[in-house]
Design goal:
The chain is of the alpha+beta class and 278 residues long. The chain contains 6 helices and 13 strands. Helix 1 packs across helix 4 and helix 4 (203-215) runs antiparallel to helix 6. It starts with 13 loop residues before the first strand and ends in a 10-residue tail after the last helix.
Length: 278
C-alpha cells in the first residue's frame, strides 16, 4: 500500500521516461479484431499500422500489466471488482477502489461515479485520480526480422500458426490459424510515469514489478498455448523535471543502459534513486 493520503496535493514535479526493447521469446499474437479476407489468410490476424507493420498497442501493455499487478496484490475477489462492460460474453471486470493508498488506482487512474460491483452493492466512487502511467504503442524494429527469418515466414513479417481443437467424444477436429509476430522480433517500448507528488516516486518500483510479472506470463492471445512470452531489456531512464518544460533546463539520464528489468529494478530500489526524482 502506498503512503498517499486523502490530503496529498498533486502538482507536476517531473516525468520519468522509460525507453527499452521488448523481445518476443515465442510468437506474439495481438489480434486486429477481424478475420483476414485473403485466400489462405489467417483466421486471426495481428494488429498492424498504416504501413502494414505489426505493432504492440500501448493499451495491450498497460492492460496486461494492470491485470498482473491486481492479481499480485490480491485485488481480484468479486467484491474488489467492478464492471466496465456487462455485455453478455464481453464482460470486462477491473479493480476499483477509493482507498487513497491503492497503488493500482494511483498508477492507472480512477474515475468518479456509480459503478456496479461484481458482487455486492454498487460502488460509489468519489475520488478522481489522474493516471500516472502512460504506455505508448510499441513499433516493430524491422532490423530484428533477419533475412533468414524472412525466408521461413508465411508473410513478410509474420508467421501463421495452425491449431486444432479436438472434440473429446467424436474426435472431430476444428482447425484454426493464428497470425503471429515470430520469436526473435523486437519492439521499441516507451513508458512515462508522471511524478505529481513526492509519494509518486514509490510507483516506479511498483511498475517494474508489473514488468517482471509479465516476463513470466504472457502478452496477447494464445498465452496458455505457447504464444506471447516476452522479455524486456536495453533500458534507459530519463528524468525531465518541471523546469525542463517551463525553463528549458536539461534532462538527466539516470540509467544509461540496463540489460534486464531485474537489473533496472535493483537500481531503482537502491538508496538515493528516489531523491533524483525531484
Amino acid at each position: 500500500m502506498s503512503s498517499h493520503t486523502a490530503s496529498t496535493k498533486l502538482g507536476l514535479i517531473g516525468k520519468l521516461l522509460l525507453d527499452g526493447e521488448m523481445t518476443c521469446e515465442t510468437g506474439l499474437h495481438i489480434g486486429a479484431g477481424k478475420g483476414s479476407l485473403d485466400l489462405g489468410g489467417a483466421d486471426n490476424p495481428v494488429v498492424k499500422d498504416a504501413f502494414g507493420r505489426p505493432y504492440v498497442p500501448g493499451s495491450s501493455l498497460r492492460g496486461r500489466i494492470r491485470s498482473l499487478l491486481e492479481q499480485a496484490a490480491g485485488l481480484v475477489a468479486p467484491s474488489d471488482l467492478i464492471y466496465l462492460s456487462r455485455r453478455r460474453g464481453q464482460e470486462v471486470r477491473i479493480h476499483q477502489s477509493d482507498v487513497p493508498g491503492d497503488e493500482v488506482g494511483i498508477l492507472f487512474g480512477r474515475n468518479p461515479g456509480r459503478m456496479d460491483r461484481v458482487s455486492g452493492d454498487a460502488f460509489e466512487a468519489s475520488n478522481a485520480s489522474p493516471a500516472r502511467l502512460t504506455a505508448y504503442d510499441a513499433p516493430l524494429d524491422l532490423d530484428s526480422i533477419t533475412q533468414q527469418m524472412r525466408e521461413n515466414l508465411d508473410d513478410e513479417l509474420t508467421e501463421v500458426k495452425s491449431e486444432n481443437a479436438i472434440d473429446r467424444i467424436t474426435a472431430q477436429s476444428n482447425a484454426r490459424t493464428l497470425e503471429r509476430v515470430p520469436a526473435g522480433a523486437r519492439f521499441r517500448v516507451r513508458f512515462v510515469i508522471d511524478i505529481l507528488c513526492p509519494e509518486d516516486r514509490e510507483l516506479v518500483a511498483f511498475f517494474l514489478q508489473g514488468l517482471r510479472l509479465l516476463e513470466d506470463d504472457a502478452l496477447g492471445g494464445g498465452g496458455s498455448r505457447g504464444s506471447g512470452r516476452v522479455s524486456f531489456g536495453g533500458w534507459k531512464l530519463t528524468w525531465r523535471s518541471k523546469s525542463f518544460y517551463a525553463a528549458g533546463d536539461p534532462e538527466q539520464v539516470l540509467v544509461e543502459s540496463a540489460g534486464s528489468t531485474a537489473e533496472l529494478q535493483a537500481t531503482v530500489s537502491g538508496d538515493g534513486f528516489a531523491d533524483k526524482l525531484s
